[in-house]
Amino acid sequence: MSPAPHGPSAPGPAATRDAEEAPLLARMASLDPDDPERARLREDLTRRHLPLAEHLAARFLGRGEPHDDLVQVATIGLLKALDRYDPARGVPFGAYAVPTMLGEIKRHFRDRGWAMRVPRRVQEAGRQLADAREALTHELGRAPTVSELAQRTGQDPDDVVEVLESANAYSTLPLDTGSPTSPVQSLGADDEALESVENREALRPLLAALPARERRILALRFVRGMSQAQIAAEVGISQMHVSRLLTRTLSQLREGLGDVEAP
User: Fold this and answer.
1) CATH of the domain at 210
2) SUPFAM superfamilies from the entry (predicted)?
């Protein structure tokens, strides 16, 4: 028995969506910019493509910009694509919209000048530290300490701290995303000097001696688990200042704990 001949293949989801949206796009293009119907169509088409904006924005995560901000920038690109799209050219809207949205996101970063301001040494060392941190987190089941990062990358611990603080100040790729799981935010949470204290009561007098602001920042970071960006907004200071205060305060606690534990 001979096999039945194959019919034409069913259109894929993208082709189906293009076919559904083509009349809407053509209608919108034919209307006057002030026509209320055009505004309604524009809003409907924007809503349909928001998942695409979110997907494209996600490609740029880890570059120092909040995801919501990137989605907003991508949506601006989407609106520009809707306003400029010409159905008569026969190009599917998606094929026109994606480069427009990506261009808007890239322009956003270029206008901010983030890459131009960051020294190349910091960028390269930062990427190396980010790779090391990811590997060590997987191996250790926790965030690595500065000393562990230094040992893995062959860098001096002071240089590691310098790169982390520089990356934090510049909000550069890929160290500081402003999320609680980024390397800058998580360093220190599992510090060896603090883990080595068997009796937590030893910390009480040291914490009591700290200024109120430093105690509050420590509580926000290690009790409430807030990121440095969140702490900065809560306390009303810059994120770089939060990073420096945390580094200095943790150093003071380590020194104090060393004095307590000394025989």
Assistant:
1) 1.10.10.10
2) Sigma2 domain of RNA polymerase sigma factors (SSF88946), Sigma3 and sigma4 domains of RNA polymerase sigma factors (SSF88659)
